Amino acid sequence: MAEAKAKKPQAEKKPTQPVMTVSETDVAIEVTDMNKWYGDFHVLKDINLKVMQGERIVVAGPSGSGKSTMIRCINRLEEHQKGRIVVDGIELTNDLKKIDEVRREVGMVFQHFNLFPHLTIMENCTLAPIWVRKTPKAEAEADAMRYLTKVKIPEQAHKYPGQLSGGQQQRVAIARSLCMNPRIMLFDEPTSALDPEMIKEVLETMVELAQEGMTMIVVTHEMGFARQVANRVIFMDEGQIVEQNEPEEFFTNPQHERTKEFLSQILH
Amino acid sequence: MATYDKNAVAFVRSEMVGESAAPAGEVGVTGWVRKNLFSSIPNSILTIFGIYIAYLGISTIANFAFIHAVWSGESGAACQPPDAGEGACWPFISAYFKQFVYGRFTISERWRVDLVYLVGALGLIWLVYERSPKRSLAALLMLTAFPIFSLILLTGGNFDYSGPFLLTCVILTAVILGAAFVIPTLTKSNPVPTVIAVAVILLIIAFILFLCSVDFGLIEVETSLWGGLLMTLVIAVVGIVVSLPFGVVLALGRQSNMPIIRIICVVFIEFWRGVPLITVLFMASVMLPLFMPKGVQVDNLLRAMIGVAFFASAYMAEVVRGGLQALPKGQYEGAQALGLNYWKMMGLIILPQALKLVIPAIVSTFIGLFKDTTLVSIVGLFDLLGMVQSAGSDPKWTSPVSSHTAYLFLAVVFWVFCFSMSRYSIYMEKKLDTGHG
């Protein structure tokens, strides 16, 4: 019933947007019959999801529906107990090397930014490239500067995270992830902890990223963002995928009762 | 000049009022005194009471230490009543000063202790002073070369490894190398890097052992001759230097996912925290020799040092664990999501923040350890307290105030060391503060 099998995504091209191509053959993430429990509590039930390279997926749903847990399984911040998760051709198992490999390819942006407060913005951005990718320091710094310019805060490079506003911190967090040159980006409610006037600057950065063809899975309540950039919206409830569709269809013609209820709550 | 007319509805100022000095009672010394000391009647009473208490304390100490003190003399007779006996007997301290600093260290060899003090002090300044060049090199040298240098200089080196020691070393080496090969093989990873790493460590240890056995032409000074400040510092510094890294390892082990490692760390920590230090020292000096095989003798000082270091490590482990738990989970996740492995995450992200959070507690542990070293005086080691006590019973210097003076001296020495540690920790906290925890 609630189980919507991942269908072949379509590369939709709206005339008003830059071309965001979705690969037909290149699978970025494949989740098959994935289940997860916290102790006795069944948090994720039979999750099936196939994400092609270049897709922008928005995951919506009420709190406690398992949205965050699902994307946290994709870079193994949470362990799944049943089923398969294959990211970029690498299956996630207990093999620590494989996990590190996946994490190098998958960037993640958190609700509370999780910047390292004891390091400057520049150090936050260059730490992983230098220590994980073994990039020479000068090169890593040049890269970091490029991404900081991209998120429009190059002038803050030598400050500490504590000196920045929430929106700026979140943009640094995005730049920090980009510095690792990830093929996939996960966003876990990136705007939920921000003041209203800062949400826009972060969303703009994310839209730009989407337009450049980044594969993205975004857990968010920003339905405007979903309409603008997503090529698929997934609705989750009680640990399962209840409905998924193209944004236009999803918002104008929801099928499942829970989806209708949810949308009526958040769209006025 | 248009003055403000209280009855006027409209008013336009034609001239701005210039700045004028604040009333005399508000600024400067008088202002500060009035605001902070005499702002209200209870405050004024407290101030006067506090000044009285301070006067009592300071005048007593000043009377004893300076005003009624005896400054010269050849024996305790100089400090006897009726001429004296009200104040400190400073000639007693100067007569015993060298013993307080060196213990009974062979007199002709005391330059070696001085050299260790000097090198140690210079190294510490190099390490601590913010603008000195190559501080990481200083840290490396102070943690590797300096201890070996001190060990050789203080003991005289030229260690004799004959008898069962060499054989034990060979067997241990074989066992460790074997384990380094077998364990990775069992977990199906390449054993070569592990074996090489272990071999390098063993080689370094062998090199250190070799250095200590070289005859530098120094006379051997047994540790039973060490004493005074030298012994206090040796025990305290070894305790401090060992307890921090060891405590960190124990704290990480206690949070490990691997049950065996966790249990070992928990048992270790709880054992050492559960027994009083005096018990540890008694066990080390009295009981341990009973369990040792015949002919094997472990130096008394070494045993005490190991006891103190383990004891301090257990406390340090809990302090560090407190810091680890205070960090938000997001810091771990942020580091993991970037692909940092466990050691990089800990070394680059978690520990720098966790240790910074607990600097005050770490330094408290250090200070506690420094003062706890005085307990070794009850197991027959003459640290500074031990020397002071034995000096107090010298019949030549019998006087009603001799031991009082010695204890005052002792207190001042300890206070200077502990207070410097405390100030340095406050300075570090300020320096490392980046705004948000």
Brief rundown of the structure:
The complex is a heterodimer of chains A (268) and B (437). Chain A has 268 residues and is of the alpha/beta class. Chain A contains nine helices and ten strands.
Annotate the secondary structure layout.
The complex is a heterodimer of chains A (268) and B (437).
Chain A: E1 27-38, E2 41-52, E3 56-60, H1 67-74, E4 82-87, E5 90-91, H2 96-105, E6 106-109, H3 121-131, H4 137-150, H5 166-178, E7 184-188, H6 196-211, E8 215-219, H7 223-229, E9 232-237, E10 240-245, H8 247-252, H9 257-266
Parallel strand pairs in A: 3-8, 3-9, 6-7, 7-8
Antiparallel strand pairs in A: 1-2, 1-4, 4-5, 9-10
Helix pairs in contact in A: 3-4, 3-5, 4-5, 5-6
Chain B: H1 28-36, H2 41-67, H3 90-102, H4 110-128, H5 135-143, H6 145-155, H7 164-186, H8 191-213, H9 228-254, H10 259-274, H11 277-291, H12 300-326, H13 329-337, H14 342-357, H15 359-372, H16 384-392, H17 402-432
Helix pairs in contact in B: 3-9, 3-16, 4-5, 4-6, 7-8, 9-10, 9-12, 9-15, 9-16, 10-12, 11-12, 12-14, 12-15, 13-14, 15-17, 16-17
Structural write-up:
The complex is a heterodimer of chains A (268) and B (437). With 268 residues, chain A is of the alpha/beta class. Chain A contains nine helices and ten strands. In chain A, β7, α6 and β8 form a beta-alpha-beta unit. The longest helix of chain A has 16 residues. The relative contact order of chain A is 0.18. Among the domains of chain B are: 40 residues, no CATH class; 225 residues, MetI-like (MetI-like fold, Orthogonal Bundle). Chain B is flat and about 105 Å long. Chain B is built from 17 helices and no strands. In chain B, α12 runs antiparallel to α15. Classes of the chains: A alpha/beta (268), B mainly alpha (437). The interface between A and B is medium-sized, with 28 and 23 residues.
